[in-house]
């Protein structure tokens, strides 16, 4: 039976047909499962706080294209500090924990101290960049 | 609780459905995954994710966004809040062409158009 013999009702049906017919698409789709889950979570968080990609980019000090890539399928998973920065730009915080099979949390990996440390290091990095730029500007002005 | 996802329909017209299948066959695997991801986004968050929104007959919103070099056209019928995937094309369609294809997919005549955004 070919794809044309069936009558899909929804896009999900059509996607199943295409997945069955195209191993290359199936491979990319399954390989990107975790990235897609993270991307959808980022989009969901941004939408809930009512921000555009441009606004998140501005707050985080990125360009819009980078935010777009974070919210897309392509590429690898974002670094942890990138996720922390994205969350902070949305006025949120990142939580990451290890959970037992029964659903109970065993370790909160980013509990307060870690998040605060990451957030502080992000701020320090941003401030350092500004300091370097100011020093450079002063040097140019003095010369 | 995760947000409710709206199921996205496909054209009932067999010819238009076959056009859609043919378009998917022409896309690279990466582009297919990007388009599917965008459709999930639309299903969850609606037209906010669009680059261009057009209104047809005062009740059908056409959502267009270019994803990984692919134009994705979705019709959103405000009468029943349904969404229909109309086209995925590596050639970004002109607004009017996208609109007329949506109209055909939904069996409508175009008697009103309004655009916003920049497809």
Description:
The complex is a heterodimer of chains A (143) and B (119). With 143 residues, chain A is mainly alpha-helical. Chain A has a domain at 95-143. Chain A is 64% helix and 5% strand. Chain A contains seven helices and two strands, in the order ααααααββα. In chain A, strands 1-2 form a two-stranded antiparallel ribbon. In chain A, strand 1 and strand 2 form a beta hairpin. In chain A, helix 1 (11-21) packs across helix 2 (23-31) and helix 4 packs across helix 6 (80-89). Chain A is extended. The mean pLDDT of chain A is 81. With 119 residues, chain B is of the alpha+beta class. Chain B has a six-stranded mixed β-sheet with strand order 1-5-4-3-2-6. The N and C termini of chain B lie far apart (34 Å). Chain B has helices spanning 14-26, 29-45, 95-106; strands at 8-9, 52-56, 60-67, 70-77, 82-89, 113-117. Chain B contains three helices and six strands; from the N terminus they run E-H-H-E-E-E-E-H-E. Chain B has one domain (8-110): RelE-like (YaeB-like fold). Chain B is globular. The mean pLDDT of chain B is 73. The chains are: A mainly alpha (143), B alpha+beta (119). The interface between A and B is medium-sized, with 29 and 28 residues.
């Amino acid at each position: 039976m070919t794809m044309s013999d069936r009558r899909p009702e929804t896009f999900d049906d059509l996607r199943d047909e295409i997945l069955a017919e195209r191993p290359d698409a199936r491979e990319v789709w399954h390989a990107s499962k975790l990235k897609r889950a993270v991307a959808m979570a980022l989009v969901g968080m941004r939408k809930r706080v009512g921000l555009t990609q441009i606004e998140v980019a501005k707050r985080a000090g990125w360009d819009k294209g980078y935010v777009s890539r974070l919210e897309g399928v392509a590429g690898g998973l974002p670094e942890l500090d990138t996720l922390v920065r994205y969350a902070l730009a949305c006025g949120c915080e990142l939580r990451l924990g290890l959970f037992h099979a029964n659903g109970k949390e065993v370790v909160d990996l980013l509990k307060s101290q870690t998040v605060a440390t990451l957030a502080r290091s992000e701020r320090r990095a941003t401030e350092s960049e500004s300091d370097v730029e100011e020093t450079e500007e002063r040097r140019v002005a003095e010369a | 609780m995760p947000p409710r996802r709206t199921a996205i329909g496909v054209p009932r017209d067999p010819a238009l459905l076959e056009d859609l299948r043919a378009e998917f066959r022409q896309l690279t695997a990466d582009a297919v995954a990007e388009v599917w991801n965008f459709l999930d986004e639309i299903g969850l968050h609606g037209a906010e994710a669009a680059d261009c929104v057009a209104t047809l007959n005062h009740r059908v919103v056409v959502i267009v966004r270019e994803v990984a070099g692919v134009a994705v056209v979705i019709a959103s019928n405000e009468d029943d809040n349904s969404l229909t995937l109309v086209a995925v094309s590596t050639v970004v369609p002109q607004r009017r062409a996208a609109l007329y294809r949506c109209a055909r997919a939904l069996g409508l005549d175009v008697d009103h158009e309004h655009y916003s955004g920049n497809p």
